[in-house]
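Students often ask why inverse folding is considered easier than folding. One informal answer: many sequences map to the same fold, so there is more than one right answer. In these notes we will look at a single instance of the problem. The structure comes first.
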């Protein structure tokens, strides 16, 4: 869920001048996995909290400054994650609550906002916009989705505008939420795949989806993970259709799955230089 390009004008200029290679981050239990070559090489980082094993991280998002954040499975506590060491840092960001959570960030003028979907055990999903610095609720709606459990496991905010995209975990549909008039997200279309866990991200005009391959069992209320691993690809935000880009084999480290994407440092630097050159040509 990258916002770095939206936060810095030079990179916005560069978006049409070059294509960045992406670094994909995903979690399994208390492990963070990183790949910059579409799954050919996957690096495992053991996450820790205060020197001990970290809690299960089930959602990920990058803030506009390029910091990676993770939300826990139960209660939705948010931690900043050191992408080199895996160390989690407690912060003043508000906890999400609930059982299943997905979140993103939005710069609204000078205010950094936290956008959150939270699903509770009764099967209803709430949505909130909160000031990330003060925890104050800016806008909220209870029960934007009912009868769908595990609710909204994946979402992505494009970096500007009033539309946030979300995927429901029962019918596997892509939905659109109007942030200016918060209500039930409108169904856009079906992804054409199933999953047991999922995470969403946004980069350079494109929505990405990472999933743990499997399905949600409606009769037992359980997530059937299987042993098929993970798939990653793009979502067409007009039709909802999913296009697979690469897969990663199973990582046997328990529950919880979060996903985020950001340009690799080398690609981001090249984009920045391209943006500077483009700006100079216009002078």
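Output (designed amino acids):
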């Amino acid at each position: 869920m990258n916002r770095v390009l939206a936060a810095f004008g030079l990179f916005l200029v560069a978006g049409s001048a070059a294509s960045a290679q992406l670094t994909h981050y995903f979690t399994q239990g208390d492990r963070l996995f990183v790949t910059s070559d579409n799954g050919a090489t996957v690096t495992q980082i053991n996450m820790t909290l205060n020197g001990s094993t970290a809690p299960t991280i089930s959602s990920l998002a990058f803030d506009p400054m390029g910091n990676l954040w993770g939300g826990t499975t139960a209660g939705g506590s948010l931690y900043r994650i050191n992408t080199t060491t895996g160390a989690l840092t407690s912060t003043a960001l508000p906890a999400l609550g609930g059982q299943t959570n997905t979140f993103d960030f939005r710069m609204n003028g000078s205010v950094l906002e936290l956008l959150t979907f939270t699903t509770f055990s009764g099967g209803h999903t709430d949505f909130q916009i909160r000031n990330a610095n003060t925890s104050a609720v800016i806008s909220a709606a209870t029960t934007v989705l009912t009868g769908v459990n595990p609710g909204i496991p994946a979402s992505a905010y494009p970096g500007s505008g009033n539309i946030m995209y979300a995927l429901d975990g029962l019918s596997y549909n892509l939905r659109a939420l109007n942030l200016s008039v918060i209500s039930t997200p409108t169904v856009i279309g079906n992804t054409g795949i199933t999953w047991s866990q999922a995470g969403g991200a946004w980069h350079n005009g494109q929505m990405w989806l990472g999933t743990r391959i499997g399905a949600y069992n409606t009769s037992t209320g359980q997530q059937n993970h299987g042993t098929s691993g993970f798939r990653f690809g793009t979502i067409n935000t007009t039709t909802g259709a999913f296009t697979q880009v690469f897969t990663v084999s199973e990582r046997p480290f328990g529950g919880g799955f979060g996903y985020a994407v950001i340009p690799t440092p080398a690609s981001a630097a090249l984009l920045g230089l391209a943006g500077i050159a483009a700006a100079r040509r216009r002078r």
